Amino acid sequence: MVIHTANFVISNTDVKKCPPPNRPEYAFIGRSNVGKSSLINMITNHKNLAKTSGRPGKTQLINHFLINENWFLVDLPGYGYAKIPKSQREKFEKFISEYILTRQNLMNVFVLIDSRHAPQQIDLEFMEWLGENGVPFSLVFTKLDKLRPLEKKKFLPAYEKEMLKIWEVMPPVFVTSSTSGEGKDELLGYIEEINSSF
Ligand code: GTP
Ligand code: MG
C-alpha cells in the first residue's frame, strides 16, 4: 500500500469523542518508550505526525490519524511507566481499556515489544487480556537496528518459546525498525488485507 495522505484528526481521552467509527482502525500500543509513535511516523513517511520523545510517557491521549482518507491509525499512551503517578496511570488504563473494548471499528491492535528485552510479564498479561476479550492483535518487535547480528537470530525464537507457554499458536509477528524502515511493507500489506474485509 502506498501512503498518499496522513492527517491528524483529533486527540482525546473520551472514546465517545473519537471520530465516527465508519472506517477500519488500527491501534498501536505497548510499554512506554517502545517506539509506538516512531513506528507510526515510519509507516506513514512522516517525521512528526505522531510526537516522539526519548523520555517515556510522551503520548498521553488517544490520537487519531486518517490515512489515505480511508482508514484510521491510533497512537495510544504507553503502559507500565513507573514514573507516572499511580492515579494518572489508572486514568490512562481506564480510558485505554474502554477504548479497546468498545471501539466498534477497531480491526487489530498492534502490540509493540522492544526486541532487545526478554519477555516481560506486563506485555504477556496485556496480550492475555486482549485474548480473553476477543480482541485481535499482532506482535510488532521494534528497534531491530539496535540488535547485534547474533541477537537478531535469537530474540524471536526466545520470545516464541515464552508465548507458546500461554498460547496454542503465535499471533502474526512483524519485526521493525523505525530508523531503517524494516517491516514497513509487511505492516502496510497486512493492514491493506484487513481493510479489504471492512
Ligand atoms: P510513549 O509515547 O512515551 O509511550 O513512547 P513511544 O512508544 O511512542 O516511543 P517513541 O516513538 O516516542 O520512541 C521512544 C524513543 O525510542 C525515541 O527516542 C525514539 O527515537 C526511539 N526509537 C523508537 N523507535 C526506534 C527504532 O526503531 N530504532 C531506534 N534506534 N530508536 C527508536
Ligand atoms: Mg508515543
Task: Describe the protein.
Strand 5, helix 3 (121-132) and strand 6 (137-142) form a beta-alpha-beta unit. The protein has one domain (6-190): Rossmann fold (3-Layer(aba) Sandwich). It is globular. The chain has 198 residues and is an alpha/beta fold. The longest helix has 17 residues, at 86-102. It has a seven-stranded mixed beta sheet, sandwiched between helices. The model has no long low-confidence stretch (mean pLDDT 94). It is 32% helix and 21% strand. Bound molecules: guanosine-5'-triphosphate (GTP) and magnesium ion. Magnesium ion binds next to helix 1.
Spell out the CATH superfamily: P-loop containing nucleotide triphosphate hydrolases
The major pleated sheet works out as: 7 strands, mixed
The strand line-up of the biggest sheet is: 1-3-4-2-5-6-7
Number of helices, where a helix is a run of at least 4 consecutive DSSP H or I residues: 5
CATH class: Alpha Beta
Question: Average pLDDT value?
Answer: 94
What level of helicity do the residues show? 25-40%
Q: Indicate the CATH topology.
A: Rossmann fold
Which stretches are poorly predicted, pLDDT < 50 over at least 5 residues? Answer: none
| Quaternary organisation | single chain
Please report the distance between the alpha carbons of the first and last residues: 16 Å
In short:
With 198 residues, this protein is of the alpha/beta class. The protein has helices at residues 36-43, 86-102, 121-132, 149-163, 184-195; strands at residues 6-12, 25-30, 62-67, 71-75, 106-114, 137-142, 173-175.
